[in-house]
Amino acid sequence: MLQLYIRLGHFEEQGFFLPNTSLILLFRHKADIEEICLSASRELELEIKQRVTEDEWNEQMLTFEHYKNRGPMFLDKVSTERLLEQLEDAQALLASMLTSKYIAPLRDDTALWAKKLKDVTEVLELWLQVQDLWQYLEAVFSNSVTAKELQLEAKRFARTDKSWTKMMKTTYFEMRGVLQVRKTCKTIELDFFLE
User: Fold this and answer.
1) Structural domain boundaries of the chain?
2) Exposed/middle/buried for 79, CB within 10 Å: 0-12, 13-18, 19+?
Protein backbone atom coordinates (compact mmCIF):
# COMPACT_ATOMS: atom_id res chain seq x y z
CA MET A 1 0.00 0.00 0.00
CA LEU A 2 2.88 2.37 0.84
CA GLN A 3 4.39 1.80 -2.60
CA LEU A 4 1.07 2.66 -4.25
CA TYR A 5 0.90 5.95 -2.36
CA ILE A 6 4.53 6.77 -3.25
CA ARG A 7 3.79 6.18 -6.95
CA LEU A 8 0.68 8.36 -6.80
CA GLY A 9 2.59 11.18 -5.18
CA HIS A 10 0.91 11.01 -1.78
CA PHE A 11 4.10 10.81 0.16
CA GLU A 12 6.13 13.60 1.69
CA GLU A 13 9.48 13.43 3.35
CA GLN A 14 7.79 13.51 6.78
CA GLY A 15 5.28 10.75 5.90
CA PHE A 16 1.67 10.45 4.80
CA PHE A 17 -0.64 13.45 4.73
CA LEU A 18 -3.23 13.23 7.50
CA PRO A 19 -6.19 13.01 5.07
CA ASN A 20 -4.59 10.07 3.31
CA THR A 21 -3.91 8.13 6.52
CA SER A 22 -7.50 8.74 7.61
CA LEU A 23 -8.71 7.42 4.28
CA ILE A 24 -6.77 4.21 4.75
CA LEU A 25 -8.32 3.74 8.20
CA LEU A 26 -11.79 4.41 6.81
CA PHE A 27 -11.39 1.71 4.16
CA ARG A 28 -10.45 -0.79 6.86
CA HIS A 29 -13.77 -0.08 8.61
CA LYS A 30 -15.94 0.31 5.53
CA ALA A 31 -18.43 -2.42 6.55
CA ASP A 32 -18.79 -0.98 10.05
CA ILE A 33 -19.30 2.53 8.71
CA GLU A 34 -21.91 1.31 6.22
CA GLU A 35 -23.74 -0.53 9.03
CA ILE A 36 -23.69 2.60 11.24
CA CYS A 37 -25.06 4.71 8.38
CA LEU A 38 -27.77 2.14 7.64
CA SER A 39 -28.71 1.98 11.33
CA ALA A 40 -28.89 5.76 11.59
CA SER A 41 -31.04 5.92 8.46
CA ARG A 42 -33.46 3.25 9.76
CA GLU A 43 -33.62 4.88 13.20
CA LEU A 44 -34.51 8.18 11.55
CA GLU A 45 -37.28 6.50 9.55
CA LEU A 46 -38.68 4.99 12.75
CA GLU A 47 -38.42 8.30 14.58
CA ILE A 48 -40.33 10.06 11.79
CA LYS A 49 -43.07 7.40 11.86
CA GLN A 50 -43.34 7.78 15.62
CA ARG A 51 -43.53 11.58 15.43
CA VAL A 52 -46.22 11.41 12.74
CA THR A 53 -48.22 8.99 14.91
CA GLU A 54 -47.82 11.20 17.99
CA ASP A 55 -48.85 14.33 16.08
CA GLU A 56 -51.86 12.58 14.57
CA TRP A 57 -53.16 11.34 17.92
CA ASN A 58 -52.38 14.52 19.83
CA GLU A 59 -54.69 16.34 17.39
CA GLN A 60 -57.55 13.78 17.19
CA MET A 61 -60.81 14.95 18.73
CA LEU A 62 -63.97 13.12 19.77
CA THR A 63 -67.15 13.94 17.89
CA PHE A 64 -70.39 14.35 19.80
CA GLU A 65 -74.04 14.37 18.79
CA HIS A 66 -76.96 16.06 20.47
CA TYR A 67 -79.18 13.66 22.34
CA LYS A 68 -82.82 14.66 22.59
CA ASN A 69 -82.97 17.99 24.41
CA ARG A 70 -79.90 17.29 26.53
CA GLY A 71 -77.33 18.86 24.22
CA PRO A 72 -74.11 17.38 22.82
CA MET A 73 -73.60 14.45 25.16
CA PHE A 74 -73.59 11.45 22.90
CA LEU A 75 -70.49 10.09 21.14
CA ASP A 76 -71.01 10.00 17.40
CA LYS A 77 -70.94 6.27 16.78
CA VAL A 78 -69.78 6.40 13.14
CA SER A 79 -66.86 8.74 13.78
CA THR A 80 -65.90 6.85 16.96
CA GLU A 81 -65.87 3.55 15.07
CA ARG A 82 -63.71 5.21 12.42
CA LEU A 83 -61.37 6.36 15.21
CA LEU A 84 -61.23 2.78 16.48
CA GLU A 85 -60.16 1.57 13.02
CA GLN A 86 -57.47 4.26 12.89
CA LEU A 87 -56.34 3.30 16.38
CA GLU A 88 -56.03 -0.31 15.26
CA ASP A 89 -53.88 0.75 12.29
CA ALA A 90 -51.68 2.96 14.48
CA GLN A 91 -51.24 0.15 17.01
CA ALA A 92 -50.23 -2.25 14.24
CA LEU A 93 -47.68 0.28 12.99
CA LEU A 94 -46.21 0.73 16.48
CA ALA A 95 -46.12 -3.04 17.06
CA SER A 96 -44.27 -3.45 13.78
CA MET A 97 -41.84 -0.71 14.76
CA LEU A 98 -41.18 -2.43 18.09
CA THR A 99 -40.00 -5.57 16.26
CA SER A 100 -37.38 -3.65 14.30
CA LYS A 101 -33.77 -4.21 15.27
CA TYR A 102 -33.23 -0.44 14.87
CA ILE A 103 -35.80 0.61 17.50
CA ALA A 104 -33.45 0.53 20.53
CA PRO A 105 -33.13 4.33 21.04
CA LEU A 106 -36.91 4.78 20.62
CA ARG A 107 -38.16 1.58 22.28
CA ASP A 108 -39.43 3.16 25.52
CA ASP A 109 -41.28 6.02 23.80
CA THR A 110 -42.76 3.72 21.18
CA ALA A 111 -43.90 1.21 23.82
CA LEU A 112 -45.45 4.07 25.83
CA TRP A 113 -47.39 5.25 22.76
CA ALA A 114 -48.52 1.70 22.01
CA LYS A 115 -49.85 1.47 25.59
CA LYS A 116 -51.59 4.87 25.34
CA LEU A 117 -53.36 3.88 22.13
CA LYS A 118 -54.31 0.46 23.54
CA ASP A 119 -55.83 2.16 26.61
CA VAL A 120 -57.75 4.64 24.45
CA THR A 121 -59.08 1.78 22.31
CA GLU A 122 -60.28 -0.15 25.34
CA VAL A 123 -61.96 2.89 26.86
CA LEU A 124 -63.69 3.90 23.60
CA GLU A 125 -64.97 0.37 22.97
CA LEU A 126 -66.33 0.15 26.51
CA TRP A 127 -67.69 3.69 26.25
CA LEU A 128 -69.73 2.77 23.16
CA GLN A 129 -71.07 -0.30 24.97
CA VAL A 130 -72.12 1.75 27.98
CA GLN A 131 -73.60 4.45 25.77
CA ASP A 132 -75.78 1.89 23.96
CA LEU A 133 -76.92 0.42 27.27
CA TRP A 134 -77.55 3.85 28.75
CA GLN A 135 -79.59 4.88 25.68
CA TYR A 136 -81.71 1.74 25.99
CA LEU A 137 -82.31 2.24 29.72
CA GLU A 138 -82.97 5.93 29.28
CA ALA A 139 -85.76 5.09 26.84
CA VAL A 140 -87.19 2.52 29.25
CA PHE A 141 -87.11 4.71 32.37
CA SER A 142 -88.24 7.89 30.66
CA ASN A 143 -91.60 6.14 30.31
CA SER A 144 -93.52 7.17 33.43
CA VAL A 145 -95.50 3.89 33.59
CA THR A 146 -92.30 1.79 33.66
CA ALA A 147 -90.71 4.14 36.20
CA LYS A 148 -93.70 3.66 38.54
CA GLU A 149 -93.69 -0.11 38.15
CA LEU A 150 -89.92 -0.39 38.71
CA GLN A 151 -89.38 2.36 41.28
CA LEU A 152 -86.21 0.94 42.82
CA GLU A 153 -84.59 0.38 39.42
CA ALA A 154 -85.77 3.80 38.26
CA LYS A 155 -84.04 5.47 41.24
CA ARG A 156 -80.86 3.54 40.56
CA PHE A 157 -80.99 4.53 36.91
CA ALA A 158 -81.59 8.17 37.87
CA ARG A 159 -78.30 8.17 39.81
CA THR A 160 -76.50 6.49 36.93
CA ASP A 161 -78.08 8.90 34.46
CA LYS A 162 -76.91 11.88 36.50
CA SER A 163 -73.32 10.55 36.64
CA TRP A 164 -73.33 9.65 32.96
CA THR A 165 -74.67 13.03 31.93
CA LYS A 166 -72.10 14.83 34.07
CA MET A 167 -69.24 12.75 32.66
CA MET A 168 -70.36 13.27 29.07
CA LYS A 169 -70.81 17.02 29.43
CA THR A 170 -67.45 17.38 31.18
CA THR A 171 -65.83 15.44 28.36
CA TYR A 172 -67.56 17.53 25.70
CA PHE A 173 -66.82 20.93 27.23
CA GLU A 174 -63.40 20.34 28.77
CA MET A 175 -61.64 17.27 27.37
CA ARG A 176 -62.50 16.41 23.79
CA GLY A 177 -59.05 15.18 22.80
CA VAL A 178 -58.97 11.45 22.09
CA LEU A 179 -55.91 10.93 24.31
CA GLN A 180 -57.68 12.66 27.19
CA VAL A 181 -60.18 9.79 27.22
CA ARG A 182 -57.65 7.90 29.35
CA LYS A 183 -57.89 10.59 32.04
CA THR A 184 -61.58 11.36 31.74
CA CYS A 185 -63.06 7.90 31.77
CA LYS A 186 -61.17 5.29 33.67
CA THR A 187 -62.27 1.78 32.82
CA ILE A 188 -63.41 1.25 36.41
CA GLU A 189 -65.85 4.16 36.11
CA LEU A 190 -67.31 2.80 32.90
CA ASP A 191 -67.61 -0.69 34.41
CA PHE A 192 -69.74 0.92 37.12
CA PHE A 193 -72.29 1.91 34.48
CA LEU A 194 -72.48 -1.65 33.16
CA GLU A 195 -73.52 -3.07 36.56
Assistant:
1) 50-194
2) middle
